[in-house]
C-alpha cells in the first residue's frame, strides 16, 4: 500500500561542477556541435581550447563556493531580516486552552499549583473562569499573596483568548493532617537523611509539584521540537501536559500509599506504627478524605516521627528547620537553570561575490594580464589584445554576475525592501579594463590626456573607479533585470516564503491600484505579512488586554483585529480611531489648530441625510474630479457631484479668487482621504466583558418539571444575590405540599408556590384544565424537590439560570457567551466597495475562532461614536471605587439597544 504513495524524488547529488575534466569535455562537445564544420583542431595548443580550460576552472570556483554550508551562503553583513525564524519565535502560541492558562500561572514565581475551572457561580456564562492557587510555603504571606494575584491577573489578561475572562482568584484552603509514625532504621543509616527524605516524599504525595524541563531533557525523552514548543513560551522551562493529572489536588490519602513509599526510603527496615489524625485530633483508620478543592498540609508541630535502631528509640541531634525549608524550595523546579532555546546557527561571511578575473590566468604571451604587452608591440597587436579583452569581458560579466547572485541569496530571500532580484557587479578587477570601457576612455580624451600612457590611465582609473562603478552597476542592473521581471520574480519569491508558513496570499488579495502601483503594493503587503507573521500566527485568537493601563496603548488590539488589519491592508486601528473628528457630526479641520480654513467648513446636502450623506461625502468627496468650481457675480463657489453627475452637496463658503477655491478642494480631498484611512478598522466588542454584575438586576431563572416541561418562570429580574436567596427559599418551601395552591382564571387554573409565610413566590407557567391536573402537577413537583433535597437529583437539571436579553440572539445560547459584536464603519472609501465589503465580512467570519459567533454590524458615524463612548464609560466605571452599578446597568441597557437595533 505504501509503495503507491506519490513522493518527491530527491535530486541525486553530483560533483560535476567541481570536475574540471567533465566541464572541459562538456564544452568540447558543445563546440563540436556549433563549429564542427569550420574548426577541427581541439588540441591543447589551440587558443580556443585555452579559453575553454580557463573558463572551466572559473566554473569550478563558482561550484566550490556554492557548496559552502547554507548558513554561510545566507549570512550577510547587513543582517537582513528573513523568514528563518528561531524556534522559540515561530512555534509557540498565545494561550489557547485551559492547560495553557495553567502553564502561564505555574510559571509565576511562588505558585506551586493552580486549578482553573469554568465559574460555577455563574452557570449562565461560558468563558468565565475562576482560579484557585496553591503557593509554596515561603510565599504564603499576605503581602506576597497580593503581589502574586496581581501578577496572575496581569499575565492572564495579556494572554487571554477572545471572549474569555477571569472572575476570581482565590487561594486553596489547606487542611492540616497529623502523622504518628514509628520507624525502625538500619543501624548505620544517617537519621537526618531518612527524616528529610520522608518529609520530601510526604509533601510530594500530599501536594505533588509540577516539573519544569529544559530542551535537552525533553529531546532525550524522545519529544520532537514542535511538541516541546507547543503552547505559550514560559520563562522557566517547559511543562508536559501529561503531568497535569499527576499534580491534581489529592482529596484522599491512604495509609497503604504511605507505607509503600516509606518502605522505599533507603535505610528503612520496618514501620512499627503509622496513624493519621485530622485537625480535631481524631484518629482515622486507613484513609483521610476532604472535600474537593482543598489540599492537605502536614502539621509538623503536632506530628510525631520517631526512629528506632535495634529496637531502641534514637533522637535527631540537630534542628532540621532550615533543611525542611530548603526541601520546599527545591520542590520548585523553576529555580533550576535549564536551557530553554536552541543556540542560533550563525554562518561565516565568505565574500562570495569576490571575483578574480580569468584574464590573470592566461599565459603572459596573450598580453591581457597585469604585465600587458611590451610598449614595442605594433598598434595592430595592441588593438587585437584590447579586442580579445572585450570579447572575454562579455563572458566574464556573466560569470561575475553569478558570483554576485550567490553573495546576495540572503537578500533575495529576505523580507526587507530590495531593489533587484538579479544581481550584478562591475568588472573592476580586470587588468587593463581602463582601456576597454569606451565611456572612460572618451572622458579621458576630453581632458586631453594621453590615452596611450598606461601609468597615467591606470592612475586616473583608480581615482575614478568608485564613481564609475556606481554608474556602471546601475547600467548593468538595467540590462539584467527590467521592472516587469523584478515584479514577477519578487512576488513569486514572497509567495514562496509565505507558502513555507502555510499562507496563501491570493485568499486575501484585493486590487485597488493600477498595474504599476499594484505590483509595488503587492510586494509591500506581502513583505508586511511575512515580517509580522509571528504575531499574526501566535496571537490569532488573542483578546485585547483590558488592564486599565493598557486600554489606550495603540498596539493593544485583539489578535482578530490585528489579522484583519494586516491581511486586508486596513490603515487604522480601534485604539487610534479618529473620534475627535466625529464628536459633533464631521469636523474636517485640524484638531490641533483653530486657524485652518477647514475649521469652519459646512456642507449643504441635496436630498441626502444622516449616515447616507456622510458616506456619500467620503466616497465622492475624496476624488478631486467630483468637484466643480462655479463663478457667480465675481464670486466662486464649490459643488460636489457623484460619478453620474448628480449633485451631492454645496460647500457653504464663497471665494473672491478661483485659486483659493481650488486650494480648498485640494484640502478637503486630502483631509477626507486621511480621515477615511484612519477610520479603516474594526471594533471588536467582547460581550462577556459587558456581562451583568452581581449588583445589577439582570438575573432570573426558570424551573423545569422535566426536559420538555417548564413548571415556573420567575417574574422580573433580580440581583445575583436576590436570585440566590429566592432559589434557596423555593428549595425550602417546595417540598411541602401545603405551600402550593391555585387560582382560577376563566375556565382554567394556575398553580401558586408560596413560602412558609404564605407569600407567593412563583406562578406556574402553564394553564391547567381541571383540578385533578393541578393535583397531579403539584404531586410531581413535590417529588422533584424532595429528591433534590435528598441529593438523588441534581438541582441544576431542573433549574435553568439566565439573564436579561437571553433570547435576543437565536444563534447563541445567551447574549454574553462566546459572541462578539464587530463594528465596521460604513464611511471609509475602501469599505464602500461592495466586493471589498463582501471580502471583509467573509474574512472576519473565517478568522474568528469557530466557537465564537461574530455579530457583524455596519455602522455610521453617530452610532459608532455612541457605542464606543458607552464601552469606554463602562470600563471606566469598573475601575472606580465604589462602582456606580445603577449607571452601569443603564449603560448596559443602552449598549444592548444598539446591538439589537443595528
Strands, helices and their partners?
Elements: H1 20-35, H2 47-66, H3 70-73, H4 87-90, H5 98-106, E1 111-118, E2 128-135, H6 142-159, E3 165-171, E4 173-185, H7 191-206, H8 215-220, H9 225-228, E5 252-254, H10 255-263, E6 268-277, E7 283-284, E8 287-289, E9 294-298, E10 304-309, E11 312-314, H11 321-330, H12 379-407, H13 409-412, H14 438-446, H15 454-480, H16 483-499, H17 515-531, H18 533-538, H19 559-567, E12 603-605, H20 610-621, E13 627-632, E14 635-641, E15 647-655, H21 658-678, E16 683-686, E17 699-704, E18 710-713, H22 720-733, E19 740-745, E20 748-754, E21 760-763, H23 771-790, E22 799-803, E23 819-825, H24 834-847, E24 853-859, H25 861-878, H26 885-901
Parallel strand pairs: 2-3, 4-9, 4-10, 23-24
Antiparallel strand pairs: 1-2, 4-6, 5-8, 6-7, 10-11, 12-15, 13-14, 14-15, 16-23, 17-18, 17-22, 19-20, 20-21
